[in-house]
Specification:
It is built from five helices and no strands. The chain has about 70 residues and is mostly helical. The chain has one domain. The longest helix has 13 residues. The chain is globular and about 25 Å long.
């Protein structure tokens, strides 16, 4: 079960705001097990892809990242 702190980090990562995404990714480094459990990928494998998505404006709704990663 994920803790509340990590849930807040996921909210940052799934944000439409690029600075929130960057902050969330920075904080997520401290939660590698939760990150893999939630997103299904190791932090290192997903970081660049998440940054690309945040640049490409594909974060059009909360949960878009979860959907894209879990339905590859």
């Amino acid at each position: 079960m994920q803790n509340k702190e990590f849930e807040n980090i996921v909210d940052l990562i799934c944000s439409r705001d690029k600075s929130n995404v960057a902050l969330g990714l920075s904080l997520a480094q401290n939660y590698p097990i939760y990150f893999k459990e939630h997103f299904g990928y190791n932090y290192e494998d997903a970081k660049e892809w998440i940054e690309w998505l945040s640049d490409s404006k594909l974060f059009f709704y909360k949960g878009a990242l979860d959907y894209l990663l879990k339905n590859k």
